[in-house]
User: Fold this.
Amino acid sequence: MNWDEFAHWGKYISDWAADYHKTLGDRPVRAQTQPGEIGALLPTTPPESGEAMDTIMADFERIVMPGITHWQHPRFFAYFPANAAPPSMLAEMLVTTIAAQCMLWQTSPAATEIEQVMIDWLRAALGLPTHYTGVIQDSASSATLSAVLTMRERATGFSGNADGLNNKGNLRIYCSDQVHSSIDRACWVAGIGQANLVKIPTKGDRHSIDDIALRQAIAADRAEGHIPAGIIGITGGTGIGASDNLGPLLQVAKDEDLYTHLDAAWAGSAMICPEFRNDFWADVGRFDSIVFNPHKWLGAQFDCSVQFLADPTAQLNTLKIEPEYLKTSGDAVTNFSEWTIPLGRRFRALKIWFLIRSYGLEGLRQRIRNHVAWANELCESIRAIDGFEIVTDPILSLFSFRCPGSDADQQRLVDALNDDGRIYLTQGSFQGRKIIRFSVGQFDTTREDVMMAADVIQDVWKRIS
Ligand code: PLP
Assistant:
């Protein structure tokens, strides 16, 4: 492909993208294909000769598009959103064009310096204290793994990397029973082990970690010779939005001298609205590490996960490695690959810069406020449906419900709704029962899109019950 052809197809694809988004609401939200159907449409061997771009593009429409679940659909209410606001998509196009590898300051000074400023902007936007610095990672899972590795190294006098974990004793990490599975996985990968991830029951309306049980668990572990290494808090758990009461958790960490990490992957974005901070983020400024995903609710295209660090030294002591070929001369600079597990890194800060400049914080706040208000309104409509039960009330814009009947009936309703295609929902579990989650957060959703869900749910339920 020469650059003139590239320019032609670049224009074609940006027109295609705008049309796709303008007509997205007419498509079924979840892909309606069966397993294996798309793969079977591809040749089993690669072509020996090049093919024309219009043939490739036609196949994209014919083969790929039917197999896409539309995450940017205004009636996507499953999981948590993975938004891609248009200015962030444009930034990604530029990043793709430049295709810089931003592992060191020297390999793209603008990427490092804009990343530093975006961390400052986001810190201020979220109301965090000025001592936080940070780094942009690909996902919350990576940030959490970095924090768990740091807990491990700190608890072993920074000797685990050098010596391995033999004879280090049982390191223990504590969290509530509402955390995301990325915490379990981080403990597996860090060599802590599932058996040493201690999950504490929750209490109260927000399903917050029971700090008294937490304190008791740590004391019991110490008495048995285990080595407490860290505590992981949650603001906005995946299942039902569980959010820890941060002050008491942090007090336990302080008394026990434990490193702390907060997973606010989803709900962190809502903290750009000052009115939510008192309830959810009082005392947040005492965490050692905090992760939130602008690629979820804020609108930055996937992938974009911000890890704030009160002091990066412990994480750098855990992850920094400097072979000869990565050394650069000159003044002291920040090389962000030393803060994370992968060496290579994309220029992720640009989409945050475009996003915030294009909407302003007030534009982004208004969306989140609307989502929270509409989730509350819809929750009341579903509560009013005969036989339906609200299992957990809205925490920000996430609530859960059940239709009449057994766990199997909940799954039957979810599957029927997703086959219907007008909305997309997913199931979860809470206190041993299957629940249906409803999460509002798609960037372009309207009140009408959200409220329509009550009619669709009743309609489909009547059809299958
Ligand atoms: N933490 C929470 C609360 C989540 O809901 C999720 C994913 O939905 C994650 C962590 C993992 O996020 P990521 O896909 O960025 O690793």
Notes: Residues 349-383 form the longest helix (35 residues).
